[in-house]
Amino acid sequence: MGKSVFEGAFDQLDRTILEELQMDGRLSIADLARKIHLSSPAVYQRIKRLERAGLIRQYVALLDRERVGYDLLCFVRLSLKQHTREQLAEVQAAIGGLSAVLECYHTAGSYDLLLKVVAADHRALERFISEHLMTLNGIEKIETSVVLNEMKSTTRMALK
Q1: Domains detected in the chain
Q2: Angle 100-73-136 (CA atoms, 0-180°, nearest 5)?
Q3: In whole angstroms, what is the distance from residue 40 CA to residue 46 CA?
Q4: Which site among 61, 113, 136, 146 is 20 to 30 Å from 43 CA-CA?
Q5: What is the pLDDT of residues 89-138, one digit of tens each?
Q6: If we measure between CA atoms, which residue out of 77, 159, 65 comes closest to residue 121?
Q7: Structure pTM?
Q8: For residues 79 and 110, is the Cβ–Cβ distance under 8 A?
Q9: How far apart are CA 158 and CA 15, in angstroms?
Q10: Which strand (E) or helix (H) includes residue 127?
């Protein structure tokens, strides 16, 4: 496994800041400073350093997909006809423009790509597959799994 970044330039206070921000990204610097017993300017400087180092990529609001109109969450697996860099790049570019695709991973195994997709309903999912995925050049096979129940969904990572 890869070496933890905390073995180098970052310390336990940095780890604590990251853990707190993962739980609540809207936590004010003042509240965070009080929580970890450090001055606000020191917390601010540490957060900026963590951002510059790329440990904090961005801050987002996590939406309830069903409340915003996406009843279905699906995982779609795609196989490519040809396993070339050009083919992969072409499919990646096309998928990058599809708003229904929340995440896309190049994987090893029976399928080449794994997509996390949202759809309003079954008809919208069918349209997405037939109008977007089935029309992609170089796709050999498509397999879709509809999520029945989200048993665990988190963005929080344990820090080594």
Answers
A1: 9-52 (1.10.10.10), 72-146 (3.30.70.920)
A2: 40
A3: 10
A4: 61
A5: 999 999 999 999 999 999 999 999 999 999 999 999 999 999 999 999 99
A6: 65
A7: 0.87
A8: yes
A9: 10
A10: helix 122-128
